[in-house]
């Protein structure tokens, strides 16, 4: 499942980019799918007779890819003034999902199943991206060195953390994770000779998290980012 999870996260991210989904749509979809839907599947599989959908009879990659697209669809309905259409999603699914052809009706059924797995709880107030964006704006407002930082790098770090279930657990504390990603981006993108801004004390001041706790999370993030990949 670990390798499958990585492939599914990459599929969701790639699909979001092809759909030109705004970052908020992408990260809400990742939150719904990777943080909540996938971990709930074991329970849902045991209860599949209650849900009664063929989509949960087996965890084929094609079915899970469909649910990844559904998470983007639901997120788009939450955030976009003009939500993505089922026609648009089906067209992308036809291009990207190789082992199964899904109809528009399948997409509608999959949306219902997805929401049933989540018990229709789709609150999105604790998405780490929200906190990261706010912190980044504040940081650039107080630190000249913030001009050297790239928000795209922050988002790239967040994408990588969704790859593994172990690192995705960091998202259970989204504000703390956002602060840690900001500090990690500072360490990675700002030249060491220009590290004059006290980034850890500033993060402690604006978030009330201990410097030691943020430092530990930064180490975890760096270990994941720079570990060898197959």
UniProtKB/TrEMBL annotation:
Stored Pfam families: Cyclin_N (PF00134)
Cyclin N-terminal domain: residues covered: 3-122
Organism of origin: Hibiscus sabdariffa (roselle)
Record's signal peptide: none
This protein's name: Cyclin N-terminal domain-containing protein
């Amino acid at each position: 499942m670990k390798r499958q999870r990585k492939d599914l996260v990459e599929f969701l991210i790639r699909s979001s980019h092809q759909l030109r989904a705004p970052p908020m749509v992408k990260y809400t979809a990742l939150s719904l799918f990777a943080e909540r839907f996938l971990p709930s599947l074991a329970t849902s599989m045991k209860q599949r007779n209650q849900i009664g959908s063929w989509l949960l009879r087996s965890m084929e990659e094609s079915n899970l890819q469909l649910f990844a697209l559904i998470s983007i669809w639901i997120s788009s309905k939450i955030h976009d003034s003009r939500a993505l259409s089922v026609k648009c999603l089906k067209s992308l699914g036809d291009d990207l999902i190789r082992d199964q052809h899904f109809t528009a009706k399948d997409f509608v059924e999959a949306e219902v199943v997805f929401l049933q797995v989540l018990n229709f709880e789709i609150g999105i107030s604790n998405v780490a991206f929200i906190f990261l964006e706010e912190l980044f704006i504040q940081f650039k407002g107080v630190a000249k060195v913030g001009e050297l930082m790239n928000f795209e790098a922050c988002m790239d770090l967040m994408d990588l953390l969704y790859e593994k279930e172990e690192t995705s657990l960091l998202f259970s504390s989204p504000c703390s994770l956002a602060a840690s990603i900001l500090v990690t981006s500072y360490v990675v993108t700002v030249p060491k000779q220009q590290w004059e801004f006290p980034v850890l004390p500033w993060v402690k001041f604006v978030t009330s998290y201990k410097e030691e706790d943020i430092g530990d999370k930064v180490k975890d993030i760096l270990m994941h980012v720079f570990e060898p990949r197959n």
